[in-house]
Design brief:
Elements: H1 3-14, H2 35-46, H3 69-79, E1 82-86, E2 98-100, H4 116-137, H5 145-158, H6 160-165, H7 167-173, H8 177-184, E3 189-190, E4 193-194, H9 196-209
Antiparallel strand pairs: 1-2, 3-4
Helix pairs in contact: 3-5, 4-5, 5-9, 7-8, 8-9
């Protein structure tokens, strides 16, 4: 059982989605994102709805602070789903190993294979975690939906810790949106090398942020 998935499931249930009864194959609010959970998530995103759980201790997130379909689409367009683990193409040692929709972690190692469902389940869990983290990071600052979406995509790629320490976030929280947008393009390197894919992603995020 995963608590982040369970929080998302509870939100979906509260919104009227039939997740069935809890259990390995019955789905429900059980922390295991099965077919019913994923179908409900896709239904919500198709309507540009929001599904991210509240970060622990963050207090109530302001209205709209969760990813829209634009955010999911941007992330998916750059990550693209892969069912077998692969090394980071830009790092000298190949770390971190990655799988699915750009998923990384201590459980992702060389030789790992997942089903499409496993990839989708992990993404559902991770997007909730990153969305809650970004919502907490921008708490109390003026933030549009597009800005939030761009920041979630950015954090999903570079990590919440990097976002929290970044000048980008500092300028956003100060209301310097032009300065914040200019910061995206600086995050285009891996192991000191400029990566074309990161250049394109940062531009897409900056464009969305300013949209």
């Amino acid at each position: 059982m995963n608590e982040s998935v369970k929080q998302v499931q509870q939100i979906l249930k509260d919104r009227g989605h039939d997740l069935g009864k809890a259990g390995p194959k019955k789905d429900g609010v059980d922390g295991d994102a099965g077919d019913r959970t994923w179908k409900a998530i896709l239904a919500e995103l198709g309507g540009n709805a929001v599904i991210a759980p509240k970060a622990p201790g963050a207090g109530p997130a302001p209205s709209g602070f969760a990813p829209s379909g634009k955010c999911i689409g941007l992330i998916h367009s750059f990550e693209q789903c892969r069912l077998a683990s692969y090394p980071d193409p830009g790092s000298a040692d190949g770390n971190p190993w990655t799988i699915g929709w750009g998923s990384t972690g201590s459980d992702i190692k060389k030789g790992l294979t997942w089903t499409q469902k496993q990839c989708d389940d992990r993404f559902a869990r991770d997007i909730g975690t990153f969305s809650a983290g970004v919502a907490k990071a921008v708490q109390g600052s003026k933030t549009s939906q597009n800005q939030f979406d761009a920041l979630v995509s950015f954090a999903y790629n570079v990590g919440l810790g990097a976002l929290q320490k970044s000048t980008l976030l500092k300028r956003h929280r100060a209301g310097d949106f032009t300065g914040a947008a200019a910061q995206f393009g600086l995050w285009n390197k891996n192991d000191g090398k400029v990566m074309k894919g990161l250049v394109r992603r940062r531009k897409a995020e900056a464009d969305l942020y300013q949209g």
